[in-house]
Amino acid sequence: MNAKKHTPLSLHGLRLLFPPLATLGILFLTEWIARGSLTGETFTQYIFPHAEAYLLAWAMLFLSWLAVDWLTRFAPLATLLAAVLGCAPAAVNFYTLQLRGEPFLPWDLMQVSEAAGVAAAAGIHIQTSMVVSIVIIVLLVVVSFFLYRGRQKLNWKPRVAGFLASAAATCGLLFGVFLQPAVTQAIGIVPDAWMQDRYYRYYGVITSFLTNLTNLEISKPEGYSEEAVNEILDDTEAAQKYSSAPLYPGSYGATTSADETVKKPTIIYVMDESYWDVSELEQYGFQFDTDVSANLHALQQTSAYGRVYSPSFGGGTCDVEFEALTGYSVSYLPSGSKPYQQHVTKPMFALPSYLKTEGYQTAAVHCFWARYWSRDTAYPNLGLDDFISLEKMHGVQKVRRHYWTTGLVTDDSMADQIIGQYETMKAKSDAPVFLHAVTMQNHTNYNKDNYPDDQRVKVTEAPAGLKASTVGALEDFATGIRDADAMLGRLTDYFSQVDEPVILVFWGDHYNPIDSNYDIYTRSGYASGSSADPRLHQTTLLMWSNYSDRAVDLGTIAAYDISPVMMELFVLRQPAYFQFLDRQLRAAYRANTRGTILEKDGTASIDGTVVAGTGAVYEPEEDISDGAGTGDTDAAASTDTAAADKEAHDTPAGETHTALWVALAAVVVVACAVLLIVKRKGATK
């Protein structure tokens, strides 16, 4: 009667193989969900060349499975939790890429409720990869239930020992590898400071997310101290080497005597979502059925105009906004971090806070939820006293409901909001106004069904080879540009008639892919298929006033130079930091943004590789024109596999790969051996 059942050797083998194989399968599901597709190209271009990153991710899932199983002795729960650990972040990553062009980053955890609201507004739907993954995960859970049913029970001592060993190994992997940049770089995981979407494509969701945890804090630069800064400020001899002549000789400030200049004009900032002058495409084989930029072109004859070098592409609006309001470059923040969420956590220097010391009243208007990008907490810290967000807007018109099911507020309604807020502020006080506005109408994604046929701008000519969906997406985008131009016309008409001096600064935050690919740019020759192409970072800029009609070509300036240049043009009293930026613009370069330096002569260099000419067009390394539409983020990904880019991300010598494979194989062997030993000891009791 005391005879014990002996578990067949084959069942032992299956139980030993299931955890590593199941978690490996979960890893593949994770990447499928995150990318929207998992093709042979995904493996050859991304996974196999960077196998070390995916092996680390698999080890994390495997060790997590073991820890849960030792603790609960319930394999289905371990399988389910491992699947959630991998697939849930992957799903979030997929949707964040769709909504803002950036992957799921650790600091996004601060925006969970806001992100859920955005997802609902955008009308996003579950993808095929997610449905199939759910089915596979359910099957794995069921298989684990039957596979481990009836296995020998263990008392608490071996269970605790197994759990502690697995948990220790998991922590060792997290703190000893993922959170140690020196270690990850040694095994071939190269930081990508400028493009997190590329980083995630190369190294996968799990490894990319965990290694980004090291960017939550800013390290103080070597030699940085208050004394060091004061020493620089006190170096008057060096300061005398810089010219104090006007940066733009033909501007209002350069041609108006000091006693006649306007001292404290009202200042209106309008950052228009995804705006750039799409009529430029008419030089590259496109034609539209209407002049989409009529007001812009007319105003350029009597205003300062040029381009803004944006730190962002396809998303990251708050990065551009932060630069424009503060003069600080996001290049010096941890890669991929969001300034409003992580760094604007207490009152700090910014144009609004400075203008308040000059007697201004300040406010912001944005037709989206106040908490998105944490604007509700960041704006007061920047000196913006009032904030009119979507929650406070009534009677606004909305469009583009095909993709954004609740619609997006029109730029025409935003003109109403800007004018209304200005009038409200002037009714309360005679003090000059600083009003900062951010629009939303032309937010990605683009689809011709967002507008009725009788309202949508039509493309009448286009380069050969473009898909109908791409042309339709361009029509959607061009319609938004036409409406933004109409808003610009309304605002300048209104403020040209008010009885006080007004400056209006209007610019776009960033370019986007159109129809989830780069065909609009590549097939026309407008730009390359790389999101690093300087041409795709130079949005349209206009600085207009109702008391000067001087046309000034600003060239390209960095987003962080918008405020200093505006104050230089109109000879407004500048804070010391803006004076420094003005000198930098004269003596050093026009922009230094996330690895790209734009020299004074227009020469651009990316990570040391020089490209002649402002907005120079790169030759694309590979054609992505056949990429899938919305939902295929690999196809939508930029063609960032040029030779220099590959070289920068290639893994180290083969010995490193071999050593890593051996080390991870050893983890599996040791874990399985421990499992067998503990089971046998438990069976003898």
Q: Name the strands of the widest sheet in spatial order.
A: 5-4-8-1-10-11-3-12
Average per-residue pLDDT, rounded, comes to: 84
Whole-number radius of gyration?
28 Å
Cα(first) to Cα(last) distance is 15 Å
Total strands: the figure is: 16
Structural class by helix and strand composition: alpha/beta
Shape: globular
Measured by DSSP, the beta-strand proportion falls in 5-15%
What can be said about the biggest beta sheet? 8 strands, mixed
Low-confidence stretches: 612-662, 681-685
Number of helices: 26
Task: Please provide a written account of the structure.
By secondary structure, the chain is an alpha/beta fold. The strands form four sheets. Strands 5-4-8-1-10-11-3-12 form an eight-stranded mixed β-sheet, sandwiched between helices. A four-stranded antiparallel β-sheet has the order 13-14-15-16. The protein starts with 8 loop residues before the first helix and ends with a helix.
Please render the helix and strand layout as text.
Blueprint: H1 9-35, H2 40-47, H3 51-72, H4 75-100, H5 112-122, H6 128-148, H7 156-178, H8 181-186, H9 196-203, H10 205-211, H11 226-233, H12 236-239, H13 252-255, E1 266-272, E2 287-288, H14 294-299, E3 304-309, H15 317-326, H16 339-342, H17 351-357, E4 361-366, H18 375-382, E5 386-388, E6 398-399, E7 408-409, H19 411-428, E8 433-438, E9 459-461, H20 468-495, E10 502-508, H21 519-522, E11 538-545, E12 552-558, H22 562-569, H23 576-587, E13 589-593, E14 596-599, E15 604-606, E16 609-611, H24 633-636, H25 643-649, H26 654-683
Parallel strand pairs: 1-8, 1-10, 3-12, 4-5, 4-8
Antiparallel strand pairs: 2-9, 3-11, 6-7, 10-11, 13-14, 14-15, 15-16
